[in-house]
Design a protein that fits this description.
CATH topology: Four Helix Bundle (Hemerythrin (Met), subunit A)
Radius of gyration: 17 Å
Number of domains: 1
Helix content: 55-70%
Number of helices: 5
Strand order of the largest sheet: 1-2
Structural class: mainly alpha
Shape: elongated
Strand content: under 5%
Number of strands: 2
CATH class: Mainly Alpha
Largest sheet: 2 strands, antiparallel
Order of helices and strands: HEHHEHH
């Protein structure tokens, strides 16, 4: 395991912890506004997917002697792009951004930021991110397995979310 991987991995874990803190704060705010949670049972699969992703990334890098991909500079550039898209989506949703499906009835859908152009910009960023992060460090098994699992999970989640938001 090299120092670049360790620093990057710690950064990702720290980043996710901050996001979970923001999501919890936002959850408390919107629940006071009457938000209803959809697919509470399915949320645990999102958590398992992301926890499994980080465990797999660490295990593959450690056990299979992961190393920087020869295209790591390009892949890191793609990672930076996904972060910009993700945080643009998160800030555009403001207090309504969450890792759960929480809906306050009667509000209009957000149509600013990347939501002017894309229906699910945050999910697009996560799809790219789950593929690209392992590829930076030549962790091909993690990239393939978790990209497939993520697509299956997000497909289900988007259907539920769109029904909850009454998107036609």
């Amino acid at each position: 395991m090299n120092l670049i991987f360790i620093i990057f991995y710690i950064f990702l874990i720290f980043q996710r912890q901050i996001e979970l803190f923001v999501a919890k704060r936002n959850e408390q705010i919107v629940r006071k506004e009457g938000a209803v949670e959809y697919d509470r049972e399915g949320y645990k699969y999102i958590v398992l997917l992301h926890a499994g992703f980080f465990i797999s990334l660490l295990a593959e890098n450690t056990l299979l002697n992961g190393h920087l991909n020869s295209y790591s500079n390009i892949l890191f550039g793609v990672f930076i792009f996904t972060q910009l898209l993700r945080y643009w989506a998160i800030t555009s949703l403001g207090k309504y951004w969450n890792t759960r499906i929480l809906v306050v009835q009667g509000l209009n859908l957000v149509k600013k930021g990347p939501y002017k152009f894309l229906r699910h910009p945050n999910y697009i960023a996560v799809i790219i991110e789950i593929a690209v992060i392992p590829l930076i460090f030549s962790c091909y098994i993690t990239a393939i397995v978790f990209s497939v699992l993520n697509l299956v999970t997000l497909r289900r989640r988007i259907v539920i979310e769109e029904k909850a938001l009454n998107i036609k």
